[in-house]
Amino acid sequence: MKLLTHNMLSSRCIKGVSVGYPLKISAKNVRLVNCDFDTDFTVRIIQKLDWNALWEAAESVGHADDIPKNLSDIDDYDKNDEFLRKVHHVVLEVEVIEGELECPETGRKFPIEDGVPNMLLNEDEV
Amino acid sequence: MKMESSDKVKYVLWFAQEHVNFRAADIESVASIFNIEVNYHTEISDVPYCIVELPSEKEAHLLASRCISLRSVLELWGHGKTNEELHNSIQQTPKDRMYPHFVSEKSFRLTVETFCKSLSMKEKVERIESFSYLPIEGNVNLKDPDVTFYLLEYFGQDSNNIPEQPYELFFGRWVADGQRSLIQKLSLKTRHFLGNTSMDAQLSLLMANQAKIVPGSLVYDPFVGSGSLLVSAAQFGGYVSGADIDFLMIHGKSRPVRPNQKVREKGESIKSNMQQYNLSSKYVGVLVADFARPLWRPDVRFDAILTDPPYGVREATFKVGSWRGPDIKPIAEKHLPHHIPAKVDYDLQELMRDLLDFAANHLCMGGRLVFWLPICREEYDEEKSLPKHKCLRLIYNCEQVLSCHSSRLLLCMEKVKEPVTKEKTPPAELTSTTRFRHRYFGGKEQKE
């Protein structure tokens, strides 16, 4: 699971959970992959990101040093190549291979196996 | 389609005669991606040629750079119903448009292509010689010419009644080829990871065009299966993600589908398909998830949603649940780590309702949802059989006939407004999808 996926993911599937965001990551195995950098995509995706959730996620997998805690600390980020490359690295190149996601409201855990989060509930939960 | 006539440069869109119903949507979507104004002189029909007017040759190259249904684009220099009409029309074409291609420095080739009739070499040579009045000075080069001229002859489509003389003739200069070569490149025959119902490369590419995927689009397939739609979306530069309820499929552990293959190879997965085509950089990820439950942060917006939902014929339609109903006993703690959730049937009407609601909520404004819907052909009624949503506008409806009584429609919808309430719309009463599976397997007798 890349942090971009995590940034969009919620646990609203659980009954009674209305926000379910952001999910807490506890990672057992994190892998770095190589992805081609694309300036336009990175600028566009920053507008779609929940920055706080991204920073917390990056911190929980040990990559918080790569990006600032507040997006507003960076002026004219769309022209800052160094910053954009770091964001690209955090959202697309850091991948959680094994671990768990935890619903912030109920504590329900969703396993991540082989890089794929399993968001299925059991039949007694739907 | 606008039809106008003027002295501007005309082009022939020369289509491959396959998936004929999809070609208009293909051309129009690509024209819309690049903002190209196309003036149609003839309508796009089942005839493999269409005469259009384009602002310049640059636009012809752009169209060809994405269109899958297009074989080639030619600059039209002559057109007629008879040989005489054709040659008259060539002589009226402005010389300054043709002559720069006739200079001695440019080697050339003249190719005769017929539709629905084959000509002998002698007949072809006769036709080529009929152009001897053109002052072409360059040398003939059949292998790698600088410029290629085409004579296209159309003998209709009824191979049992081929006329002596063609119905229509076209003469022109080759400008560009369409993207037919991608169909071979992404062919399922050489695809690493395959599922039972992997979408054929050509149709997936046509879907990606209809969805107007451009470099940097964020694309999602909620019924991803073996990820064949993601491959074509990524080929056009989309960043792709998907989800499926089938754990084994997502993890590449489902039963292999190739003949003579007993077990899946190690590492077979959607990701390995992306690697195969060198598209790993476009791969965002896949999840195991139940489409009947909300999954994403409410303000997540995708640029396009491409999907082939299961209809219960070749792939079962499931969601998590129990046949015992909602009052089941909780699962014991000790079973939890290895428990596989029970599943119940996911009614196709309900699934379609959920899909349209999902698209209305999670598409960008102007973003497109492209998906398949199975229908019984006899009962099909455009008004009643198609799912509708007040935030989505139907753009294209292309039919692929599967058998004498069933078809599937490729529907393309565009988001035109943001939904106001979070309430679910009631399931649409679709005559087509009601128990499609039952009809499909039941045949005629059981219909009463």
From TrEMBL, chain A:
It holds the Pfam family Trm112p. It comes from the Eukaryota. InterPro entries: Trm112, Trm112-like. This is Multifunctional methyltransferase subunit TRM112-like protein. PANTHER family: MULTIFUNCTIONAL METHYLTRANSFERASE SUBUNIT TRM112-LIKE PROTEIN, UPF0315 PROTEIN-RELATED. Belongs to the TRM112 family. One of its GO terms (molecular function) is protein heterodimerization activity. Gene3D superfamilies: 2.20.25.10. SUPFAM superfamilies: Trm112p-like (SSF158997). GO terms for biological process: rRNA (guanine-N7)-methylation; tRNA methylation.
From TrEMBL, chain B:
Its main location: cytoplasm. The keyword Metal-binding does not apply. GO terms for biological process: methylation; tRNA processing. It is found in: Cytoplasm. Belongs to the class I-like SAM-binding methyltransferase superfamily. TRM11 methyltransferase family. Part of the heterodimeric TRMT11-TRM112 methyltransferase complex; this complex forms an active tRNA methyltransferase, where TRMT112 acts as an activator of the catalytic subunit TRMT11. Pfam families: Tmrp11_N, UPF0020. GO terms for molecular function: tRNA (guanine(10)-N2)-methyltransferase activity; tRNA binding. Its EC number is 2.1.1.214. Residues 10-180 form the tRNA (guanine(10)-N(2))-methyltransferase TRMT11 N-terminal domain. CDD domains: AdoMet_MTases (cd02440). It catalyses: guanosine(10) in tRNA + S-adenosyl-L-methionine = N(2)-methylguanosine(10) in tRNA + S-adenosyl-L-homocysteine + H(+). Residues 190-314 form the Ribosomal RNA large subunit methyltransferase K/L-like methyltransferase domain. The keyword ATP-binding does not apply. Keywords: Cytoplasm, Methyltransferase, RNA-binding, S-adenosyl-L-methionine, Transferase, tRNA processing, tRNA-binding. This is tRNA (guanine(10)-N(2))-methyltransferase TRMT11. GO terms for cellular component: cytoplasm; tRNA methyltransferase complex. Gene3D superfamilies: Vaccinia Virus protein VP39 (3.40.50.150). Catalytic subunit of the TRMT11-TRM112 methyltransferase complex, that specifically mediates the S-adenosyl-L-methionine-dependent N(2)-methylation of guanosine nucleotide at position 10 (m2G10) in tRNAs. This is one of the major tRNA (guanine-N(2))-methyltransferases. InterPro entries: DNA_methylase_N6_adenine_CS (IPR002052), RlmKL-like_Mtase (IPR000241), SAM-dependent_MTases_sf (IPR029063), TRMT11 (IPR016691), TRMT11_N (IPR059073).
